[in-house]
Design a protein that fits this description.
5-stranded parallel sheet, alpha/beta, globular, two-stranded antiparallel sheet, 9 helices
Length: 196
């Protein structure tokens, strides 16, 4: 049986970069957000449900109209809950099929909101990536070309690290990338020797 390591962290913590570092070590990585975006475009059942929820404008030129949907769900938590209710089960099913095909001793499942959704009960171990708030804001502003206000608004919809830390099996504070890489090597060794 393949062990599942749930990798999570707040926006700007560097969880995607950490996932890429595990991938470079040969670890199969499932990036839930990326797969969700594919499913929302390629899965006919999901697409139909999203159109029912948001109307025809949800898709433009066969692509998901993320700006349109984002604008609605940001102001309407009920719509966000409804959207998650469509997408999350489809992603969970896709992940189950994907993990069954893996032969490596463990896989990384990168999920933005692992603890918030109770997803940590479905993984063998959880790895939380943290970083000081100021550094996270700076990273997101540089990456996405957005304002501090926009970053803070996105952060407001996520849990604080203080809420996540007690639930995490491992916490990696990602400030200095050289140190982070050393920590990843150590964790890799530990994850390889996990019992089923």
């Amino acid at each position: 049986m393949t062990n599942i390591i749930g990798l999570t962290g707040g926006i700007g913590s560097g969880k995607s970069r950490v996932a890429k570092a595990f991938l470079a070590l040969g670890v199969p990585c499932y990036i839930a957000d990326m797969e969700a975006k594919k499913i929302m475009v390629e899965n006919a059942v999901v697409k139909k449900k999203i159109i029912t929820l948001f109307g025809e404008k949800a898709y433009a030129n066969k692509e998901l109209n993320r700006a349109f949907i984002g604008d609605i769900v940001f102001k309407n938590p009920e719509k966000l809950t409804a959207l998650n209710g469509i997408v999350h089960p489809a992603v969970a099913e896709h992940f189950t099929h994907w993990v069954a095909l893996q032969t490596f001793p463990y896989v990384i499942k990168e999920v933005a909101i692992l603890f918030e959704t109770g997803g940590h009960v479905h993984v063998n171990k959880s790895l939380l990536i943290t970083a000081p708030k100021e550094l996270r804001i700076q990273r997101v502003m540089e990456r996405d070309g957005c304002t501090e206000e926009e970053v803070l608004a996105r952060m407001a919809s996520q849990w604080e690290d203080e809420q996540r830390i007690p639930l995490a099996d491992y916490v990696l504070n990602n400030i200095d990338w050289k140190i982070t890489l050393q920590q990843i090597e150590l964790l890799h060794g530990r994850f390889l020797s996990l019992e089923d």
